[in-house]
Design goal:
The chain is an all-alpha fold. It has 13 helices and two strands.
Length: about 300
């Protein structure tokens, strides 16, 4: 037994060494740096909890946190609802089904930088195709990237472009629902909405919970799209009009790599971790009696 354990550890050693060097050590270092005043060019000076105290009185910190929570609380349900609707539509047996699935999934493989610049062009208030389409049907034409009221809805609109990944997961969950349940529901006189509410939703609720948690954690780390849409010049880390695009990850980037406040940025990173843990715990707590597991 002892020899087999050593042999197993030997085979696992490349991963263990990589984990310690590239993950565990940086995590421990960031925890230490969050308690220091560190700017990369001078030795860290221990300041205790002063960085965390500064966060409480930092208006831009709260602005970035609220912007990120807006995208999480509003954007995640919107994007997951769109993904589920697409999965329901693509689960129907129609000619060309595989082609339609490909078209929905294809945008997810487009590099995020290229996709963001395409959307920056589409959302342009003067010549963008989005406003052109809205104007063609007599609707208003918002200043998507220039009006602070519309910048975050613009990010949510962009998120609908990449619902293909969640759609694939929902599609797999839908195909795993036994047909006998639907047949029993039809015998009981259930219509399409009743079947969806009382059969489909309960049986795929674990997948919905999983996708909600994953999407929420991902959105809390939102960065690239806000960084690129808010740029006024090359490599500029702008928060957009009235800092309406200043998401948490972007403000952390500004503190770390623009202002070189590495200690302060490390404290922000740990606060974000606790926010993600609290949000995950809350979701699990609220969904305890609302998620159906086959073994229950």
């Amino acid at each position: 037994m002892h020899r087999s354990v050593l042999r197993g550890l030997l085979f696992a050693s490349p991963w263990i060494v990589g984990f310690v060097i590239f993950q565990l050590v940086p995590i421990a270092a960031s925890a230490y740096f969050s308690l220091t005043n560190f700017n990369l060019f001078q030795d860290p000076q221990f300041v205790g909890l002063r960085n965390y105290q500064r966060l409480a009185s930092d208006a831009l910190f709260w602005k970035s946190l609220l912007n990120t929570l807006y995208l999480t609380v509003i954007g995640v349900p919107v994007s997951l609802t769109a993904a589920l609707a697409a999965a329901l539509a693509l689960n129907m047996r129609v000619r060309g089904q595989s082609l339609f699935r490909l078209f929905v999934f294809l945008p997810t493989v487009v590099p995020v930088v290229a996709a963001t610049y395409i959307w920056r062009w589409l959302l342009n208030a003067q010549y963008g195709y989005v406003n052109g389409a809205l104007g063609a049907v007599g609707l208003g034409q918002p200043l998507w990237l220039d009006d602070p009221f519309w910048t975050k809805p613009a990010l949510i609109l962009m998120s609908l472009w990449v619902t293909g990944s969640a759609m694939v997961v929902f599609l797999a969950a839908l195909q795993d629902v036994p047909e006998t349940y639907y047949e029993a529901a039809v015998i009981d006189g259930a219509g399409p909405w009743a079947k969806f509410r009382h059969v489909t939703l309960p049986l795929i609720s674990p997948v919905i919970l999983f996708e909600t948690i994953i999407a929420g954690i991902f959105t809390l780390q939102y960065f690239t799209q806000a960084f690129l849409l808010g740029q006024t010049r090359l490599n500029a880390a702008s928060g957009g009009p009235e800092n309406s695009l200043l998401v948490y990850g972007l403000y952390l980037f500004q503190q770390a790599f623009v202002n070189l406040n590495m200690g302060y940025a490390s404290a922000m990173a740990w606060v974000l971790l606790f926010v993600a843990l609290a949000g995950t715990w809350l979701l699990l707590r609220v969904s305890r009696d609302r998620v159906f597991y086959a073994g229950d």
